[in-house]
Amino acid sequence: MTDQSYQPSITALRAFVAIAKHLHFGSAAAELGVSQPSLSQALSGLESGLGLKLVERTTRRVMLTAEGRRLLGSAIAACDAVDDFLLDAAGDLDPLSGTVRLGFIPTVAPYILPRVLRGLGEQRPDLELLVVEDQTDRLLGQLREGTIDAAILALPAGAPGIGEIPMYFVDFVLAVPTGHPLADKTRLAPKLLEDLPLLLLDEGHCLRDQALDVCQAAGVSPNVRPTRAASLTTAVQCVEGGLGVTLIPRTAVAVETASGGLATAEFAQPRPGRRIGLVYRESSGRGEAYRQLASEIAALVAESGDVEPVIQTS
């Protein structure tokens, strides 16, 4: 039973969060800059004070108990609150200096990162971005666990405790092989998708679901081909090889058409597309800082002319 007078230290909470993040005592100790015995002692004190077993450790693996999984979110929120308190106490210390771990979905990262990294490097020389590329669900899981600080993905995320900042809207275009009858056409009706062999990304990619949403909105049942790609580049290569057509965001066109084997066609207004935004833990207390970061990233991406910003960019 928990001792009602027990007050866990921030050191103990950080130890628990680091162990939960790495599921490895050595890696957790290295992150915190402490010895493994000190880390184990901090965790043991936390478990003793709470009267709960948070971490199960065997000779082969480390895992969270049910109680550990239940309390992890609260522990992360507590650490975030202390970090925010220290930032406030520091006065004019910029929360967007130092290291920020920023996630990107795979259908965004390759197409905006060069411009974003160069631009932020010039605008914020004290900011060090650590980039993590993964699918939406896994990024949201890492965000909740505190493994990353924020992520850029398609909205809405619809996750409890996760704040959303819309950044820009990007159209979808139809990718077809060069020489295809629809190549370079404009004002296509989405209903045309019913008559085309449609290639989709594999399960777990939000772009797959968004392409199907476009078909549903047009009232068509697409002819989905059995080929499924793990990346947009692979899907495009299959299009170039004549296996079908696919939808790609306009931001991807310059990169994916560089080989010369791909052409595109545009849909009629209102063009289908998606909103891209930045998501973060609401418990972090850094909503305003992340709004500023989102605004700066949106402005950089908008310089390409491929997107329509939906956030104030100044």
Question: Gist?
Answer:
The protein is of the alpha/beta class. The chain is built from 10 helices and 12 strands. 40% of the residues lie in helices and 24% in strands.
Protein model, in words:
It is a single chain. The protein is of the alpha/beta class. It has three domains: 10-89, Arc Repressor Mutant, subunit A (Orthogonal Bundle), CATH 1.10.10; 98-168 and 274-309, Periplasmic binding protein-like II (D-Maltodextrin-Binding Protein, domain 2, 3-Layer(aba) Sandwich), CATH 3.40.190; 174-272, D-Maltodextrin-Binding Protein, domain 2 (3-Layer(aba) Sandwich), CATH 3.40.190. Helices cover 40% and strands 24% of the residues. It is built from ten helices and twelve strands. The chain has helices at residues 10-22, 25-32, 36-50, 66-89, 109-123, 136-145, 206-218, 232-240, 253-256, 287-302, and strands at residues 55-57, 62-64, 98-104, 127-133, 150-155, 162-177, 197-201, 223-229, 246-249, 262-265, 273-281, 307-309. Strands 3, 4, 5, 6, 9, 10, 11 and 12 form an eight-stranded mixed sheet that branches. A two-stranded antiparallel ribbon has the order 1-2. It has a two-stranded parallel ribbon with strand order 7-8. A hairpin with a 4-residue loop joins strand 1 (55-57) and strand 2. Helix 1 packs across helix 4 and helix 2 (25-32) crosses helix 3 (36-50). The N and C termini lie far apart (53 Å). The relative contact order is 0.14. GO terms for molecular function: DNA binding; DNA-binding transcription factor activity.
